[in-house]
Amino acid sequence: MATSEASNTTYKKIQVRRYKPDENPEKHYLNEEKGLWAWLTTVDHKKIGLMYLASIALFFLVGGILALVLRTELWTPARNFLDADMYNQVFTLHGAIMIFFFLVPSVPTVLGNFVLPLQLGAKDVAFPRLNLASFYIYVIGALFTLTAILTGGVDTGWTFYTPYSATTSGNVLLMTLGIFILGFSSILTGVNFIVTIHKMRSPGITWAKLPLNLWALYATSIIQILATPVLAITLLLLAMERALGIGIFDPNMGGDPVLYQHFFWFYSHPAVYIMIVPGFGIVSEVISTFSKKIIFGYWAIALSSLAIAFIGFLVWGHHMFTAGQSSLANMVFSFLTFMVGIPTGIKIFNWLATMYKGSIDLKAPMLYIMIFLFLFTIGGFTGIMLGALSVDIHLHDTYYVVAHFHYVMVGGMVMAFLGGIHYWWPKMFGKMYSEIWARIAAGFIFIGFNMTFLPQFIMGSQGMPRRYFNYIEQFQPFHQTSTIGAYIMGVGFLIIAFYLIHSLFKGKRAGSNPWGSRALEWQTASPPPLHNFEHVPVIINGPYDYHKPMSEFQLGVASSHNGHHAEETVNVPESSVQDKV
After folding, report:
1. Which residue spans traverse the membrane (predicted)?
2. pTM for this prediction
3. Helices 172-199 and 212-244: angle between axes, nearest 10 degrees
4. For the chain, which has fewer Cβ within 10 Å, the N-terminal or C-terminal residue?
5. What CA–CA distance (Å, rounded) separates 122 from 207?
6. CB-based contact 68:568 (threshold 8 Å)
7. DSSP per-residue codes, 303-329
8. Domain ranges (residues) in the chain
9. 569 by DSSP, 3-state: which?
10. pLDDT at residue 4 above 90?
């Protein structure tokens, strides 16, 4: 039951009755409207989330195939089937597709779109049409990028560093234009989420009862709004440099190529947190649910997301320790790099404390989160190594950086994303997947991932540069181990695709709450009805109240919706009631 959190908060009494969702709904959002046109014109956040899921899955497939092509080429020190120019194009496309079309949008656009209104008890996001527009902007940006690939390709690397990107013959202009367009999708999604969280919470949802997943999406949205315009301006200047020769980055015309790096990394390091902070939100939800414990250190986890968003804007210079910065600037950026590890460490220790003495159930979602904790911690520690000036001078632009980045992005964000997909899959489709196959796939991915990237730490520490087409023979065993691991990991992802698609046709029906969660999204039917809840929910308990028996756990609906049977009277902040009930 809601209690006073501040002396200046006005409360209003509302009569509620206990709400019980339909376990097997006959009508839900998947069968309300059928046909391709109904999907293409929908403003339902759930369907838009699924359209994003199909799109980013396609890009993940393409990016993964390109990665296997690279690893196959590197099987031997000499050329196998790619020449040097084509190799450059392939790793550029792998990086650009994975970063801009999968890692950055995946969690906010797919799981954020689907889950955020459900966790607020809202019917939809604040601006449904803008949400659909964001999806189409994403598609348009992808089409420009595809056109660039088919009409000459790009060989600059995903960072598009000047002066090479301003002079190369590749179709850099079209590629950067596609990513420029894509940025608007990210900005509009961030605006939509912030307004939704502020204005569309159901009665009883105070900031202290906001799921930690929404705190993470809130912090991510702030980064999207503030950082993405910097990337847009940077790419626009690069396009003007190529098309008009204005000389902003060209030293022959008074420009500075290092200025491009400052602009680019001022966006791209916060972009790392656009990728990983939403994953932190998923981890909080899954660990609490499968440990059956109230989350430990709620406010520490919530505020650390905002702290990461803030500090993330101050550390871009650690990508440029070898670019000729002053010693003082290098020291400041090194110190700030260590600082950003503090809020991340706070999360790790709070998650471990949540699991301590919990009733842990290692179902597939929890299994992927356990993998996340192991791999992401390695990524974090190796990031601290790269933040140390003396060490980074040796390791800069080596395979050590490649391994660190993949331990953070794939070992962190992708594992969290997989945990979230497995966690909310029954809610999305009302079907259960094969738990046995999910565990087998997790094993393939864990083994394959470590076989792929652990040897790269060794190669990097021994001086193997990244992005090289050929290499000396002493590194061949490490490269071959990485290639074998990449194929094992690829098998794991194919198994995931198989059993998830199979579950749509042959999977068992999922009840409204197959995990026994206390979070709001699990208190409605699976799949949810068109408007998420049959009634406007009144929140009596918090999302992590596992210390209360399920028989005492209550979700109310305002009695005015269904006449009699009022069960109790609760106090909710008047500002959260307004005219919703």
Report:
1. 50-70, 90-118, 130-152, 172-195, 215-239, 259-283, 295-316, 328-346, 367-389, 401-424, 436-458, 478-501
2. 0.90
3. 150
4. N
5. 15
6. no
7. HHHHHHHHHGGG-GGGGGTTTT--HHH
8. 20-520
9. strand
10. no
